[in-house]
Amino acid sequence: MAVSFTVTKKDSAGQARLGLLHTPHGTVETPVFMPVGTQATVKTMTPEEVRQVGGRIILSNTYHLYLRPGQELIREAGGLHRFMNWGGPILTDSGGFQVFSLGPLCKVTEEGVTFRSHIDGSEHFFSPEKAMEVQMALGSDIAMVFDECAPYPCSREYVLEALERTGRWARRCRAVHRREDQGVFGIVQGGTFADLREKSAGELVELDFSGYAIGGLSVGEPKELMYEMLDYTVPLLPADKPRYLMGVGSPDCLVEGVARGIDMFDCVLPTRLARNGTVLTRHGKLVVRNAEYVRDFAPFDRDCSCYACQNYSRAYVRHLIKTNEILGVRLTTIHNLHFILELMKELREAVSEGNILAYRDSFLKRYQGA
Amino acid sequence: MAVSFTVTKKDSAGQARLGLLHTPHGTVETPVFMPVGTQATVKTMTPEEVRQVGGRIILSNTYHLYLRPGQELIREAGGLHRFMNWGGPILTDSGGFQVFSLGPLCKVTEEGVTFRSHIDGSEHFFSPEKAMEVQMALGSDIAMVFDECAPYPCSREYVLEALERTGRWARRCRAVHRREDQGVFGIVQGGTFADLREKSAGELVELDFSGYAIGGLSVGEPKELMYEMLDYTVPLLPADKPRYLMGVGSPDCLVEGVARGIDMFDCVLPTRLARNGTVLTRHGKLVVRNAEYVRDFAPFDRDCSCYACQNYSRAYVRHLIKTNEILGVRLTTIHNLHFILELMKELREAVSEGNILAYRDSFLKRYQGA
């Protein structure tokens, strides 16, 4: 099997666990956060810098790469790893989330989705078969099935319809996938309806994927409801397969997710916040572009060991951001990814030491300033 | 003296020479090219990367730093070196060139120049005294006198008027300068009039500056005319002081300048071209954003040892540039600065080996495709 998973420790009190995710491009310790490299680059960073801040597996986007530069070009380049010079594992999403996010620009049938490019308005068609074809051309370590992520709030009827289609599409993905050096993950949908989560999980587990993602959360619902859904859904998934919570990356949600047994996360949040001039710290967010930091010669966070905090002041980074200098967003991006990846390391240590719940409480107290 | 200069070798055939420029932040081998860090950052790069590609002394802009973030803030930060985390020498221009480039937005009197900010239109006043005050606050290793660079073409009368004012202003700069850890360079003007160059040089040499810049060239005149002016002006300058040709950085002009006895250069060309998706090679320019490179999996230049050429293809960089990904301009910038700084190294070797003229001919033949 191209991708396999070993659970190395299970928390005695809850679902939290440590694991090793084995891929054709190396083994990764879990729980893990995957920095997002939408267009075959983690925005602003070199692969060496991603690794330097602790990145071990990244996510890239099938929809974006299909449009530009096109999967055939990447295949010719020797695959996505070689094209972008990243030697570690890569997970590609299926493009489903992006295509459905186009809203009125996309039209769904049983066969697939017709959509218009956000770049030039040209018409395209994605089906489960197409999504797999593109991901096979990219050569990622882990491909995701083509799914429909229902929005929130959403009627039970629509969620049911979408998850049934997602189940049929998952089967079609399975049927056409034929890269032995690539794992495939299923995606559990079902919105915020516990019984629909159960139905979706049941259908997918039958197909025996390399791992299981929980989709359709972190799409606008209250966080408490997301946690409730995790509590309900995680036990429905096979204990020997990795569990991936899609699109989640705020510090509090990562902590809560790990405590609830999630092994993998991805999110644009740390890199997007960085480009808006906001940095994450243990004491919450700091909007470094704000005027209050104009003469603040301290680093973002005195206790942080990242390159940005070791060498530059808030005042300097604020100057760079106000003058649109690229180094500014490079430094905030380095800091934010370093912060999230250090947090993941501490979470793994907490699980290892059997005190994830105490760690969670102490982290949240400080982070939320409670 | 804060800044001094040692000539270590003189070419037997021409004016070319090797030297050591000693500054409070270290000694630099000349001839040297100074990457431009307009707003306290060499665009897209960390200081470590600037050093990695061979940068040893950088230039920063008084006009820009005066407007944002302001020299007093930089003084509070501990000076420009500390603010931007660059431990090597820094030369600051005087702001004169930028202020006069504002055209109708600037008004000149004997006292100084009233101008409007290009950012918000606010009114400001720069005088020789103000230009020195700002540069003393920044704490650069080398400050430049406040001068007027006449455009090309320009009447003899105007050039004469401008250079006479520049001479009086140079005297005023000298009078108010009082940082012992900062050298001051004079700027020879005179446009393309040999006798005016002589007049300007004579006045400045009397003031005994740490070095002498040749201003007012590379402002639109034919290159041959620039070379002629260099041939005429260089012998007018003291042989034991560094000679700095301002605003010059195209490969052919660097080669010709070194052959004519120039010790220092600066130019935004390599970094600006990079941001436009153009890279410099020994065989001329390569516009990597062009469609012809879409499936070109070779590096910019097979013989180049820079980080970009060692790890990435033209096709990948083109993709990054077309999708506005920051890593694209980072890679073209790294390559272009590396190219220029390697060229300077080869020029120093050629002078050292006594064959600068042969090197020039062979370089130009290949570069210009002749």
Overview in brief:
The structure is a homodimer of 370-residue chains. Chain A is of the alpha/beta class and 370 residues long.
Descriptive account of the structure:
- The structure is a homodimer of 370-residue chains.
- Chain A is of the alpha/beta class.
- Chain A contains 15 helices and 16 strands.
- Chain A has helices at residues 47-52, 62-67, 71-76, 80-84, 96-101, 128-138, 156-176, 194-206, 223-233, 251-259, 269-275, 307-311, 314-322, 326-352, 356-367; strands at residues 4-10, 17-23, 26-30, 32-34, 58-60, 90-92, 106-108, 113-116, 123-126, 142-144, 183-188, 211-214, 243-245, 264-266, 278-281, 284-287.
- Chain A has an 8-stranded parallel sheet. A 3-stranded antiparallel sheet of chain A has the order 1-2-3.
- In chain A, strand 11, helix 8 (194-206) and strand 12 (211-214) form a beta-alpha-beta unit.
- The longest helix of chain A has 27 residues, at 326-352.
- The model of chain A has no long low-confidence stretch (mean pLDDT 96).
